[in-house]
Amino acid sequence: AAFQPPTARRTRARSGMDKRVSAAEETAKAVLASLPKRTDEADAVLAKYFTQSVPAFRQAARAAFQPGQSNASLVQTSEAVHELLVSAVANFRALEFWLQTKVPQLSDGNNFGVEVQDFVIEKIKAARTQCMTHADGLSNWEWQRGLGIEKLGATKSTDKSTVETSESKNEDGTNKETKTKKEETTTKVGTKEGLDDFVLYVVETDVKQYVALEGAVRELIASYVRIHALVNLNMDKCVNPRGTGNSGGRVGMY
Fold first, then answer.
1. Which pTM value belongs to this model?
2. What is the pLDDT of residues 183-202, one digit of tens each?
3. Residue 165 per-residue DSSP state
4. Separation between Cα atoms, residue 103 and residue 239, nearest integer Å
């Protein structure tokens, strides 16, 4: 390979990093523009999956409880909310990274613009962390519910019975009787007696998850609205905290 002076190598490396910074800015601006749509998607999840009051959900969960089965509707709700949270983490991370590339060169005596930039970045980071916490907590419900089901000692039993039927037909003045046998299988799910408290525990675990999921979606909506307003209202200081001619918009080496 031909010899390249250090200056040429640094220029090439800087060019590659500049492309990454430009790509990060393009991605983040697209994310920022999409936040109203993302908020509407979260509203749609609220409207679809959280139509019941907490007492109504508790009553329905108790009536539909089966020891050997999961709460199918709540599993579906959890999956929908988890998808929202994972998407939100990616969105907030993109915004956070973009603004971090706009941090000016470090120097003594940061000005007000830098403080505003730092404040916005911290708010985005807090929203991202909150979404990650909610997403991680979803699996805890499955674990707690499984423990309750285990304490119930759910068992399956299968009963087989033979049903005999007969049918009489009159042919040419003669009665003919035809007998058929059919085997029926019945599966029952049972639990140990005297464990009603564990049934209530599992139901309340479902109720707790329902409340937590709804809260997570509502907090996500609020975060989207806050971050969208915060970044747009402070755009100048976010991308150029020290103003024109003061190294704003450049990545400092630190």
1. 0.73
2. 766 555 444 554 677 788 88
3. E
4. 8
